[in-house]
Amino acid sequence: MPPSDPEQYRRTSRESWSAAAGAWGAYRDVMQAAGEPVSHWMVDAIDPQPGHRVLELAAGPGDTGFLAAELIEPGGTLISSDLVEEMLEQGRARAAELRITNVEFQIIDAEWIDLPTASLDGVLARWVYMLLADPATALRETRRVLRPRGRLALAAWADPEENPWAFAPRAELAVVGAIEPPAPGAPDMFAFRDPQHIVDLLEETGFEDIVVEPVPIVFRFPSLDDWWDTQLDISPTLARSVVALTPAQRDDLRDALDVRLARYVADDGSVALPGLTHVAAAGA
What we know:
The protein is of the alpha/beta class and 284 residues long. The protein has a domain at 6-160 and 185-218 and 276-283: Vaccinia Virus protein VP39 (Rossmann fold). It has 10 helices and 7 strands. A 7-stranded mixed beta sheet has the order 3-2-1-4-5-7-6. The radius of gyration is 19 Å and the shape is globular.
């Protein structure tokens, strides 16, 4: 079900992503090292060709779209978009590092894509739709802006238990009653955990030739402390929950997390936390 107050949810989302943008830029290497297999799968799935016009939704630092940018030259254009200007700043900085010039940066809300109908050859959306107040509307908008036979590629997280790198703090916070589990169908990182749900939504919104596959990934950190600092920086929601705890509760939380994640810690203290994501491709 949608959030009880969709507009408030959207406002809070904008504020959260604005606050987290700097951290997503700072930890770009960590996140992209883990997500690179997902990005490559998605780019391959839309089959970018010279002259194509491709949109990346919620691009953040932009690495998935930038993989497509070189494949659509000459004559092609990547539109790297995000909900907030602070995220676009991260993308601009990364594009400058990579010397990518065939890219436009735009603030775009995935639920109301401000682009002409049938104007795109491909859309990339890595870990986007499950976080939206109205993912079905966003998918209809995506299909509207795609040309006939245009391609969509998306990613969405699989079961929480398959993603301890993100789920462990939520599980331990729930144990002490510091957070409530999301309502069924509400926007959430794991709202698309069931691959059949992805298929159903894509069919409902007019897509065809749907393929859904799992892609395992690994998040690597020098230590559990580095992982924890990263989580708190990239997730303002998590940070707010932790700050609300007493100092003793925060200490207990870290102790519980150390026990929960001990199996993923090597002898040298480095950490390799597994993850699993669905990837899907479909045609307009």
